[in-house]
Amino acid sequence: MATKWKNFTRNSWVKAVCWLLILVMTAVSAGLTVYTAENAQKNNLNELSSYSTYSLSDVLTHEQPTAEYLAQQLYFPISNLYAVGETGTTEESIEKNVTPADLLGELTSEYYQSDTWESGEPEQSYDDSAPTLDAETVSAVMAALASDTTSDYDDISESAFQAWLTHHPEVYASCRARYISAQLQSLTDTQKWLEGLKNSFDYYLTNTITGDCFTSLPDGTTQESAESQLLHTTQYALALKSTTTDAAFYSKHTDLAQELESLDTSDDMLDSSRNGTAICAMTTDAYDNLCLSWSEIHRLFTNLIIIYAISAAVIALCLLVLCFGAGRKPDDDTCYLLGFDRIWTEAQIFFGMCACIAFAGVISLFLNYFSDITVSLSFPAACTGVCAASVAFAAVCLVIFLSQVRRLKARQWLNGWIIWRLFRKFCIASLCWLNKQFRKSPLRRRFIILSILLPLLCAAWIPVPVVIVVLLIASMRLADSIEAVNRGAHDIRAGKTDTQITVREHAPKELAALAADLNSISEGLQEAVDTAVKSERLKSELISNVSHDIKTPLTSIVTYVDLLKKCDIADETAQEYIRILEQKAQRLRTLTLDLFDASKATSGAMTVELAKTDLDALLRQALGERSEHIQRAGLDVRITSHPPVYVNADGRLLWRVLDNLISNCVRYAVPHSRVYADIAQGTSLCTLTIKNISATELNISADELMQRFTRGDRSRHTEGSGLGLSIAQSLAELMHGTCRVEIDGDLFKAIVEIPRWTQPETHETNQTT
Fold it and tell me: Which string of b and e fits 300-309 if b means at least 16 CB within 10 Å?
């Protein structure tokens, strides 16, 4: 028997038949699903059920419509009747019910487009003789604006809005007319919709507040006659009567009436604002058609469930046969793999997921949006598309499934996973790496042994407190040495080049060697710092001496140039040469002074007298001194300050800092642009920020720009020595402040921070040389 079963399952024709049965049953199930959906959609696309839905469980368990479903058939028309009653059934009633709150959105929209909104202040040019809106209406609109919590009107000035509304009655009238027109259009649409229900429903509505009556019954029908006709005649299968306080169902079918009366959801389903009495009744013919549609849908879905069960049984049996015969040949127990089986399992899963997404997309296209597709596609086309997609998806899933079965039977299932191969590869590599680390140094061996031994000791039931104590003692000793090295390295990084690191006597050899190396680095840094300081001092002295030596001949050149100017020289070319000599001599003189000041500021050979100084007044005075140059450059200087701003600074040096920064703006700012000077007072510092737009591209870092002889204009078309910012930084540091620059694109920002003046207990003059 076993041999016959093996031969049966391994037969190629049997496998082909099983494949064919699986695909056929899949196609049959898909086709019947589309057929059921199409017929269910047809039975559901009528005026009685287009606004209510049914659940699949209700259809399968009930052969007739449920009470909840029938109640929904009446809830929706009743709600529309109340909506009509609330707005009114005539233009006069709608105009009577319009409130200022209804027009608030239109009024604010008009206000946003007015000139008053642009300025934010009431217009002063209102014509007092022109017509105005009455005060009562204006007050009502302002009250609605104040009480509105659903919109954001915080940006509206109430005084400006009230003045604008008062002097624009035509805007209020226009908004009111548009609102009434929209309400009338909505009323017309609702009436058309209710008119379309006359073949299935009759209704009656009377509004107790407005007195309006809206009904599908003949004109002149009273409420008593409407109730008698709609609620107590056999012409209507069921009806719903709703008042301001409750709602009740009526039906000529006793059982159905009892089920409807047992529902507790009527008040929740209807709108809470019910002003008046509304009655809606479904005709007997409409009720019978609804029951027929429900019964047809019940039959379709019941048959579909039976087909699903049969298909599942056939597919399961075929899968069992294919699993037994997968990879086997008659009279051969060897499992053979196919070419597809060589593909990694992850790739197969990805391929299956893509097929699943594509299948879901097709099913969503043909089923979820079935009613829209059938406008342009016939039922055979829709059925063919869904069946083809289902068969293709089933074939893909079956190929992947049988591939995994063949791998299992060939005992190569794990090898088909790339994750498993990587895991196996890297585990071996990790062991090799651990072996290499173990052989490198005694310190690594101790760490490896400790990392492995401690978990083993705890697993071997050795008292955990003993292990914790030993580990704490050893780790604390090691931590002392590590912290000593860490503190020493931190001190060396901070510039303390005389730091010497000392570790514990029994510290690891590697840690002791690291401490010795850091000590050697500290000594080397100390020597480098001493050499750099000496070199900087010699350079500053050289610059000072050279600048001093240049002063004498430069003074003579300037003097002789002045004498030449006083001579009566008629030659215009000679006069031009004298002017150029004077200009270049003055530039050389400025450069010499800048070099001299930069050298003195850097070396500290400059007297600093800190005193109470008004930064705001000094800034304005510096701008005044440079006013001619500022006007020539077309710059507009904007100052933001709250004078007086007292700082603890040397007025002469602070003046030089401000003059350098202003001169820098005049040279390099975009002509005819704005320069912003902001002074902010902090708790301990006062900050001056000068911002301007550079006329040339600043393709240089801020740190590099602060160095000597560095200019933002690399082409050097403008005058300047490149020492202004460097001198300003040095002078600010002499006054215990800072000076730095920030660059953001073409935005140049100079920031000066000076200590704020505090009243001392004793007035002293701080002099530093």
Answer: beeebeebee
Strand-pairing partners, residue 236, are 283
User: Does residue 401 sit in helix, strand or coil?
Assistant: helix
Give CA–CA dist 187/91, Å, rounded: 10
Nearest to 723, CA basis, from 636, 597, 570: 597
Q: What residue type is assigned to position 396 of the chain? A: V
Spatial distance between the Cα atoms of 601 and 731, rounded to a whole number of angstroms: 6
- SS3 call for 248: strand
Q: Quick one: tokens of 266?
A: 């009527």
Q: Strand 608-614's sheet: what is its strand order? A: 646-649, 608-614, 766-768
Q: Which residues pair with 381 in a beta bridge?
A: none
Hey, CA dihedral for 316, 317, 322, 325, is it positive or negative?
positive
Distance, CA of 215 to CA of 424 (rounded, Å): 81
In tens, the pLDDT along 673-722 reads 999 999 999 888 999 999 999 888 777 777 777 776 565 555 444 455 56
**Cα distances (Å, whole numbers) of residue 304 to 26, 151, 295, 309, 370:** 13, 51, 14, 9, 18
Secondary structure of 360-395 in the HEC alphabet? HHHHHHHHHCHHHHCCCCCHHHHHHHHHHHHHHHHH
Neighbours of 458 (CB within 10 A): 13
* Residue 120 falls in which region: left (phi positive, over 0), alpha (psi -120 to 50) or beta: left
Q: Which residues pair with 608 in a beta bridge?
A: 768
pLDDT at 442: 74
3-state helix, strand, coil in the chain (%, to 5): 65, 10, 25
Report residue 118 as tokens.
Answer: 């642009």
| Residue 334 DSSP code | P
Q: Which residues contact 736 (CB under 8 A, 6 or more apart)?
A: 610, 648, 755
For 405-455, the pLDDT digits (tens) are 888 888 888 888 888 888 878 888 888 888 888 887 777 777 777 777 777
Backbone angles phi, psi at 748, to 5 degrees: -105, 130
What is the spatial distance between Cα 461 and Cα 453, in angstroms, rounded to a whole number? 13
Return d(Cα 184, Cα 173) in angstroms, integer: 16
Place of tokens 């299992």: 408
Decide: helix, strand or coil at residue 344: coil
Q: How many angstroms from the chain centroid is the CA of residue 98? A: 41
Closest CA to 276 of 32, 58, 89: 89
The residues, ordered by sequence, that sit 6+ positions from 568 with a Cβ below 8 Å of its Cβ are none
Query: What pLDDT is stored for residue 50 in this prediction?
Result: 45
* Non-local CB neighbours of 194 within 8 Å, separated by 6+ positions: 77, 80, 81, 84, 203, 216
DSSP assignment letter at 715: T
Q: Note whether 393 and 359 are within 8 A (CB).
A: yes
Question: Are 569 and 621 spatial neighbours (Cβ–Cβ below 8 Å)?
Answer: no
Question: What's the pLDDT tens digit per position in 68-107?
Answer: 778 777 777 777 777 666 665 566 667 777 777 777 777 7
Q: What angle do CA 746, 750, 756 make, to 5 degrees?
A: 155
Find tokens 């900087």 and name the residue.
536
| Residue whose token pair is 């699986």 | 22
Residue 233: which H helix or E strand, with range?
none
If DSSP states are collapsed to H, E and C, what string results for 650-711?
A: CHHHHHHHHHHHHHHHHHHECCCCEEEEEEEECCCEEEEEEEEEECCCCCCCHHHHCCCCCC
CA geometry: angle 470, 473, 477, nearest 5 deg: 140
Structure tokens given for 674 = 């704005």
Model-level pTM?
0.44
CB neighbours of residue 715 within 10 Å: 7
Compute the CA torsion angle 290, 293, 294, 298 (nearest 10 deg): 170
Contact predicate 322/25, CB 8 Å: no
| Token code pair at residue 468 | 């914790």
In whole angstroms, give the CA distance from residue 477 to residue 397. 63
